[in-house]
Specification:
The protein is α/β, with parallel strands linked by helices. It has 2 domains: about 160 residues, TPP-binding domain (Rossmann fold, 3-Layer(aba) Sandwich), CATH 3.40.50; about 90 residues, 2-Layer Sandwich (SIR2/SIRT2 'Small Domain'). Helix content is about 40%, strand content about 15%. The chain has 9 helices and 9 strands. The strands form 2 sheets. A 6-stranded parallel sheet has the order 3-2-1-7-8-9, with helices on both faces. The protein has a 3-stranded antiparallel sheet with strand order 5-4-6. Bound molecules: nicotinamide-adenine-dinucleotide and zinc ion.
Length: about 260
């Protein structure tokens, strides 16, 4: 099937579905200037993922300093990023009443910035916008800690003396229970599950499309390169998230107009 035909099929699926859920990954934000992990030039081509595991972070002051050095440089890129056409297209689907919620692996807050209400964005890998104390649980706005880190406090400490970590979920760190419950509920209760910009190799996030499929939903995957779950999908589009979603939303709107006349 040609890409044009596939976008048309996806638009029709969206229209006839009662509950559409999207799962997004780093690939939806690359066009906002935030590198993903696994593309050429991505974060893992510059850093060793092992180095940033939760166990390493807990193990030594030196590992925490290196983690915070990386995060100090990554945060400004994320904080200044703007939603791109792909985020805006999903926000438009939401406004049209054709998107129930977004489960995101991203920590960049761009879905919220694009106008999707906070309670409709399930952040299963946490957020860069806050910092938490692993000892007392106190939460700090990221901007406040960022200033201290930029002034040389490496690694920063909580006022209780405890260890501070960005409120993101590292490899090896337990998943947030509430968000995982909400994500699983969304996956099992939808009739269309759309993956956008994820290689689908990071678990348990990558199990959500399979859970949706087992629960009877159709599965659509939109990603630049093949993913680990392409075989399970009803429609796979290998293309850029922005152009593809823009096209799909345009078709959804055209079909809504046709149906109302
Ligand atoms: P990933 O790096 O494993 O995969 C990203 C996928 O997106 C790749 O397969 C790539 O081909 C595709 N892609 C890149 N640009 C695209 C585009 N313009 N349109 C469509 N597809 C595109 O990322 P992942 O699956 O999200 O999993 C890795 C982890 O990355 C997640 O846990 C997430 O927390 C973290 N992460 C998040 C951000 C962010 O918040 N923006 C950035 C980097 C990493
Ligand atoms: Zn503390």
């Amino acid at each position: 099937m040609r890409v044009d035909d596939k976008t048309d099929v996806v638009a029709s699926l969206i229209l006839k579905s009662e509950r559409v859920v999207a799962l997004t990954g780093a690939g939806i934000s690359t066009e906002s200037g935030i590198p993903d992990f696994r593309s050429p030039g991505g974060i893992w081509s510059k850093y060793d993922p092992e180095e940033f595991s939760f166990q390493r972070f807990l193990a030594s002051e030196d590992a925490r300093r290196r983690y915070w050095e990386f995060s100090r440089d990554f945060y400004p890129v994320v904080a200044s990023a703007k939603p791109n056409a792909a985020h805006l297209a999903l926000a438009e689907l939401y406004r049209l009443g054709k998107l129930h919620c977004i489960i995101t692996q991203n920590v960049d807050g761009l879905h919220q910035k694009s106008g999707v209400p906070e309670d409709k964005v399930i952040e299963i890998h946490g957020t860069l916008m806050f910092v938490v104390c692993l000892d007392c649980g106190k939460k700090y706005p990221r901007g406040e800690i960022q200033k201290r880190v930029e002034a040389g406090e490496l690694p920063p400490r909580c006022e209780c003396g405890g260890v501070l970590k960005p409120a993101t979920i590292s490899f090896g760190q337990p998943m947030p229970a509430r968000e995982m419950r909400l994500a699983e509920e969304a996956a099992t209760s939808c009739d269309l599950f759309m993956v956008v910009g994820s290689s689908l190799v990071v678990y348990p996030a990558a199990s959500l499309p399979l859970l949706a499929k087992r629960s009877g939903a159709r599965l659509v995957i939109i990603n630049l390169t093949p993913t680990a779950h392409d075989n399970y999908a009803d429609v796979v589009i290998h293309g850029k998230a922005s152009a593809t979603l823009q096209k799909i939303v345009m078709l959804v709107k055209a079909k809504m107009r046709e149906n109302s006349t």
